[in-house]
Amino acid sequence: MYYYAHYFLNLMSPAGMIPDFGDAQWNSNWNRYLVFFEAAATQYQDPRLKWAAATIARQFIDFENPISVGLGYNLLDCYIWGTPRQATPPDALSGEVMEDVQGKKIVFRDGWKQDSTYMLLNYRDEGDGGLNFRDYLRDTIPVEEEKMTHGHADENSIVLLMSGGSVLLHDGGYRNYMPSGPFGAYRQDYFHNRLCIRPEKLFMGQKQGEYRYSIRDAVPGQSVLDFLHNAGSYRIIRTQKVDFITLPDFDYSRTRLLDEKMGYEWDRVICYVKDPELFVVFDIFKARIEDYFTLANLWHTRKILSQGDHWYDTIYDRIQKEELSTAKKLLIVFPQTQSRMEGVEKESRHYQEELVIHQTTAQHFELGETLGMITVLIPHTSSTQPQEWKERISLLPVHNPRAGLGIQIKHKNRTVFVGTKNDLRMDIARDWRRPRYTYEAGKIRFGDIETNGDFVFASLEGPQLDYTIVNLTKALYKEKTLIEVKEGFFGLAFDASPDQGGRGKLRYWRDSTNIKDLK
Fold first, then answer.
1. 360 and 509 share a domain?
2. 396 in Cβ contact with 419 (< 8 Å)
3. Contact 182, 231 (CB under 8 A)
4. What confidence score (pLDDT) does residue 335 get?
């Protein structure tokens, strides 16, 4: 119970409630969380838990209108189990909730106020625990559309995004009838803000004047949702955290979904850029078998206010009957457009009419081949014009697009660079040596920065270069060395040879330099 008290506390959102991941719906069961936090605050003498209870009470209770007998019972429980102790808000910002074994969630946040920016990434799989109980649930009721832990197919999904008191992305909802609605409503992967993958090739069609086929006429393609839809039955997969780092200028996570039966890996890399405030999302697919695959990058919304070439300005004006603040909008930008199909389709989601924005590609993959997709999510006010943002974001040149992905963002007098490696094992030698890292095999050039690191975050203002590179042995800027790991000695060689030199990797390297001074 101590674990779950802090687990739920760290999930608290600016909406004054726990986000509705899995089998839940928007702001449901707040009265139970209220009693839980009151009792936990007393048990553990923790003013942060009291803050959670007080926040829920302020958000949902009208003490001037005592009309619910059930609420009266809840408040009586709060009085019995709680104490009138001081309430203190937490001060932790972005972090794991709580770890990568049981919780399997990451929260990005800049504070604990109602107008704070908040994103919840859920990469929780069904897990291995409680097999007897999971089997019993599966054997006794028809729940094929969900995990046997009452979760949805929401692995690597962005469950909630809020900023300025506005809901910008949210989850799919509970269901509209038993045992589940059409296509597993609202549990299946295509109801979530995630990458959906199918082991077939979508017929993409073409617009007027395009060259995919031998004529220049428009050729109707398949509906992406129709292609993805099935009965909604849940596929058992595994997930794991690859990395998470929080730093003053950005936060970085990499989480992985492994579908061994279908034969692929999918890494979702999220970079929360704090100035200018936006989220860069890299979705990286890796084929474990040789086959055709379709990749559909899905983002759900209520309304599209305006759109242009590869950008969509969106809002959530309501969730069911609850009217929402639209002070902030969400601009969704797809900087990478080569061999991609985009579109908007209507859908029924969370008991209301919504829209799904997709960027989709389909092709044959060789064994081990990777392919990446990029989305930039920009919370903004009405004073910001979406077209201005679109012109400030562009692809970062990568010498081998199959090896890595990157974008560059113009902001005031500086340029921000964000890049990620696609295949984290590309620099591994396949022989006896230890360490096995080989720089020549693993290096990628992101613009003027070359490294074998997993992730690059840098900004350039005049001659001043600030940079952070994750999991590296070496980095260069225009062929001049930024950092290089010194050689050390490593023993226990498989060929029984004496200790020999090698270069291990740095967890990350963070520094500033004047590029004119580099040698």
1. no
2. yes
3. no
4. 96
